[in-house]
């Protein structure tokens, strides 16, 4: 490929973003970046270091401290914080409950967007980047922009399955609604569909069907360039 391919995949939790993004990256031989994991890593660092995540000024003042490094292999994605493997710790309920508050702090977003753009630019062949503001803010000139959606019920069922019984489906759905509201309502880089993004509703589709659709869309966008 002469020009690196950049695929932006956005959408709320439970739509299949991570599974789809990793599979598409592997299928197309591209790198992969989970930006949500980076915000979780920042949140985990704040919690681990006693920073009050409800104190915006405190979070802003510490945003430049943690060294967050994301691996870009779609077959084995990794993330470290200050050299420590954070893949497990960032998925705890405590981090999930606090990540929207930390993500809303402008200084946090500025720092992580800078890192995300550097990673995307360094990908030799191209990259699939997943998140909530990739097509709108992080990589607005992406080759292809996809916005994944799904019914609240489907999203809750998927997330509840991932949590393995920690919450009921109803509790999970309520938590997703709260997070959607927080992420969509924040002033800095809210969760939103880019005007030129193609929306794919995954409610009734298998993972393979979603992957096929996204790969097809990427091919169309590359051909049109």
Describe the structure.
The two termini are 12 Å apart. Helix 2 (35-48) packs across helix 5. The protein has 225 residues and is an alpha/beta fold. 50% of the residues lie in helices and 15% in strands. It has one domain (5-219): P-loop containing nucleotide triphosphate hydrolases (Rossmann fold, 3-Layer(aba) Sandwich). It has helices at 17-28, 35-48, 56-62, 93-103, 106-122, 134-138, 152-163, 169-185, 207-224, and strands at residues 5-10, 31-34, 68-70, 79-81, 84-85, 126-131, 144-149, 198-201. The strands form two sheets. The chain has a five-stranded parallel β-sheet with strand order 2-6-1-7-8, with helices on both faces. The chain has a three-stranded antiparallel β-sheet with strand order 3-4-5, with helices on one face. The protein contains nine helices and eight strands. It is globular and about 50 Å long. The mean pLDDT is 92.
Overview in brief:
The chain has 225 residues and is of the alpha/beta class. The protein has helices at residues 17-28, 35-48, 56-62, 93-103, 106-122, 134-138, 152-163, 169-185, 207-224; strands spanning 5-10, 31-34, 68-70, 79-81, 84-85, 126-131, 144-149, 198-201.
CATH superfamily: P-loop containing nucleotide triphosphate hydrolases
Order of helices and strands: EHEHHEEEHHEHEHHEH
Helicity, as a percent range: 40-55%
Distance between the ends: 12 Å
Which sheet architecture does the biggest sheet show?
5 strands, parallel
For the largest sheet, list the strands in their spatial order: 2-6-1-7-8
What's the CATH topology label?
Rossmann fold
Structural class: alpha/beta
Beta-strand percentage?
Answer: 15-25%
Provide the number of structural domains: 1
CATH architect. name: 3-Layer(aba) Sandwich
The beta-strand count equals: 8
Average pLDDT works out at: 92
Coarse shape: globular
* Unreliable sequence segments: none
The CATH top-level class label: Alpha Beta
Number of helices: 9
The radius of gyration over CA amounts to 17 Å
């Amino acid at each position: 490929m002469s020009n690196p391919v950049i695929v932006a995949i956005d959408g709320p939790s439970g739509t299949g973003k991570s599974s789809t993004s990793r599979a598409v990256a592997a299928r197309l031989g591209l790198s992969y970046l989970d930006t949500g994991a980076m915000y979780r890593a920042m949140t985990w660092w704040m919690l681990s270091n006693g920073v009050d995540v409800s104190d915006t000024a405190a979070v802003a003042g510490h945003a430049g401290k943690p060294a967050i490094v994301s691996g870009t292999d779609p077959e084995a994605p990794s993330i470290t914080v200050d050299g420590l493997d954070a893949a497990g710790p960032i998925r705890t309920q405590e981090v999930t409950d606090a990540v929207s508050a930390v993500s809303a702090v402008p200084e946090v977003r500025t720092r992580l967007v800078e890192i995300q753009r550097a990673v995307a630019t360094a990908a030799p062949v191209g990259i699939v980047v997943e998140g909530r503001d990739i097509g709108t803010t992080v990589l607005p000139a992406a080759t292809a922009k996809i916005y994944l959606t799904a019914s609240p019920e489907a999203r809750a069922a998927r997330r509840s399955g991932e949590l393995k019984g920690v919450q009921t489906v109803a509790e999970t759905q309520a938590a997703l609604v709260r997070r959607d509201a927080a992420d969509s309502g924040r002033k800095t880089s809210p969760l939103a569909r880019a005007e030129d993004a193609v929306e794919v509703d995954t409610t009734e589709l298998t993972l393979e069907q979603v992957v096929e659709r996204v790969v097809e869309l990427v091919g169309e966008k590359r051909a049109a360039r």
